[in-house]
User: Fold this.
Amino acid sequence: MPIKNELLAQEVGEFTEAEQIFKAPKMYGVVIDNQEVLKHMEENLSGKIIPAAINKSGEFKGSSSVFTIKQFNLVFNYIEKLIKKHFDFIEDGDFRPIPLKFNDYDVCKTCEYRSICGFEEDDEKRAKEYIPEEEFWNALMVE
Assistant:
C-alpha cells in the first residue's frame, strides 16, 4: 500500500497520520529490487517502513533486504518443493519430530510444543550451518 502525501497530512487524534505510520513496526522480510515499484510503497526509500533503503548515489544500502526476480523465483520454487516433500511425509504417516539445530542454537530449548512433541534429547536433529550468501544462491540453482 503506498504511503500518499495527502494521507500524511490528515490529523488522527493528537498525532498526524505520518507520525502514526512511522510509529508502527517496520515491515520485515524481502522486497523486489525494483526502485520504481518500491517508491510506490515508500516514496523516499529511507527504510523507515519497508526493509530497503537507498544511499546518496541511488543504490540500495547494504542493510536492504532485496531480491531480484530470479532470486524470488529460486526461493519460491525451493519452498514449493519443500512443501510437496512434507505433504508426502504426511501422506506416508511420517510425523517424526526432527528439529533443527542451527550452529549452536538448539530450537527445542525455546519451542512451545516441547512438552507434547515427544522429542527426546538424544534423538536425531537436523544440523544446519551458516553458509555464505553466494553459496546459498548456487545451492538453490542446483535444486
About this structure: Residues 5-66 form one domain. Residues 4-9 have pLDDT under 50 and may be disordered.
